């Protein structure tokens, strides 16, 4: 999941692919494309933030009011990033796939 120059090149063509100007997914050299790598790292970072921010929420007394309040915000933001990433992931794997048109 390391980032390469090919990944930057893949991302430059992403807009045309998402807007259906190009029917085929941009080519990529590695086993995973840049979108899959971004999704992986977004989930890893969000999960860490989700876990770390959850600890003060479970045990609020030792941390104090400010840290607990900040933890709620970070926890919610991490959950939103994971949710949006999951929705995009499902969309790209289902509805965004080219195929025969049905009438």
Helices and strands in order, then pairings?
Elements: H1 5-12, H2 14-18, H3 34-58, H4 65-93
Helix pairs in contact: 3-4
Which structural traits does this protein have?
103 residues, mainly alpha, Fumarate Reductase Cytochrome B subunit, 4 helices
Summarize the structure.
By secondary structure, this protein is an all-alpha fold. The chain has helices at residues 5-12, 14-18, 34-58, 65-93.
The CATH architecture: Up-down Bundle
Helix share, percent: 55-70%
Taken in chain order, the helices and strands follow as: HHHH
Separation, N- and C-terminal Cα atoms = 40 Å
Shape: elongated
Radius of gyration: 18 Å
Domains (count): 1
Poorly predicted ranges: none
Describe this structure in words.
With 103 residues, this protein is an all-alpha fold. It has one domain (5-93): Fumarate Reductase Cytochrome B subunit (Up-down Bundle), CATH 1.20.950. It contains 4 helices and no strands. It has helices spanning 5-12, 14-18, 34-58, 65-93. Helix 3 (34-58) packs antiparallel against helix 4 (65-93). The protein starts with a helix and ends in a 10-residue tail after the last helix.
């Amino acid at each position: 999941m390391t980032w390469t120059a090919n990944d930057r090149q893949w991302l430059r063509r992403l807009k045309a692919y998402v807007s259906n100007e190009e029917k085929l997914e941009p080519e990529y050299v590695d086993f995973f494309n840049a979108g899959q790598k971004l999704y992986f790292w977004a989930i890893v970072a969000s999960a860490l933030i989700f876990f770390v921010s959850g600890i003060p929420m479970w045990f609020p007394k030792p941390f104090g009011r400010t840290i607990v309040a900040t933890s709620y915000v970070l926890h919610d933001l991490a959950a939103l990033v994971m949710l949006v990433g999951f929705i995009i992931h499902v969309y790209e794997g289902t509805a965004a796939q080219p195929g025969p048109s049905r009438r």
